[in-house]
Protein: Major facilitator superfamily (MFS) profile domain-containing protein
Amino acid sequence: MTAEDPPAATSPGRARWCCLRLGDGVRGRHISVYYFGAFMTVGVSVGCSTLQPFLMTSLLGLGADEQGAIGAAAKSLGEAAAALLAGGAGLLSDRLGRRAVYACCLLLAALGLGLLPLSRGLAVFYALTAVSFAGTGAAAAVMVAIPGDYVFGPDRGKANGLVAVANGLGAVCVGMVSGRLPGLAASLRPFAANRAQGIFAYGALAVAAAATALTLGCGLAGRGVQRGGAAGAGALDALRAGLRLARGDRALVLACLAAAAARSDGQIAFFFSQWCVSASLRAAAAAAGLSPDAPLPPELREAAVQRGLAHSTQCVGLVGLAGLLAGAVWGRLADSMDRAATLSVALLAAAVAYAALALCPDPFGARALVVALLVGLCQTGVVVSSQAFVQERAPAEVRGLILGVFGLCGGVGQIVSTFAGGQLFAHWAFQGPFVWVCGVNLLVFSAGLVLVPLHRCGRPPATGSGVLLDGCGLRP
Structure:
């Protein structure tokens, strides 16, 4: 429980939603709209990653040997833009309210998605991919901060578990449907051309993102529920306090490292889709008696791409389904156990799962489907436990900014992992990105073994959140 939460004795009179006790001024409709936003935010992001191989193959005409490096470069640019925007979005959400900033971030994503299928060169493709990922990434940074405002402290682990459930449903429903949109459009006469199929698929995602932004703008609670906001402090004071706190609290250092691991775990949607499409193209070339990197006839190429996309959406859907099943379990563990210990267990489990995925020889085998379920179960634990941990440590006065720093660290981890994974994918093996992510989880787990005992021994008074906030004039 944070210092801003009222005593537990007052909790029986609180409004409830499902198994959660809500904060002052929060109603059931507010948190219902929030979970719908969590469902759509991740669903749109996964859908964008799932469709990227189609865009590179059918609209830009890139070969399988080029897609790993170019796709990773585009995603790295997007994550860099998202990382830069996440801290600013967190700070703005502290000042202007989560509702307005969350909705604006999704509108930015809708703009990028709507224009992406019009790309006719790599420069435009890179720029619009950056806009799309910046919007969804910044929206995710604000999304993570909201349970700290809406939910009573001891129930935040369960709240984040339900966020993971909503995220998993979004990945399954929106992500899987997105991967099948080009095939659906191809069956309709007005969308027979590849570019028309792209406009149909990306346009549907853009409309979904814009509709979600409108729903959030109308349905989330106003700024009044953000407890302990520093109304009289300037933005620079809040920025200075938040950054000093993030640097001085060892537990927050661990949380930010865990953010890098959690976002690195997001490689499954992007690189698994690339792996499936590339393996499908190579299998089609082998069946036609051609060398693996030889250009295929257009009809064989399109059939191979559609087969790879269909299988990748199935596997990514299994990951989301596993997250749906595991989210509530990890949330309860985070509330009932020491949250740092829960995070360490999740990191080790995720490392084992990604090692198992890296050892799969074929993405189309039954073994890959089973391992995809395991990956979903374990990576959900990293996401849920890291979010619950950082919300526990972040004071309400700068919660949005701290969560923005958390998102920034996650973005940096994603950028590094996407770049390294792209190089491994292009120059070593299709499973190379999963080896890298396994190593990232092991590295953060090892850091946790050093930082967790320091956290349990308590923080020195000079680095306590109250001292830092008082020093910057942020206490009401």
In short: The domain at 25-222 is CATH 1.20.1250.20 (Growth Hormone; Chain: A;).
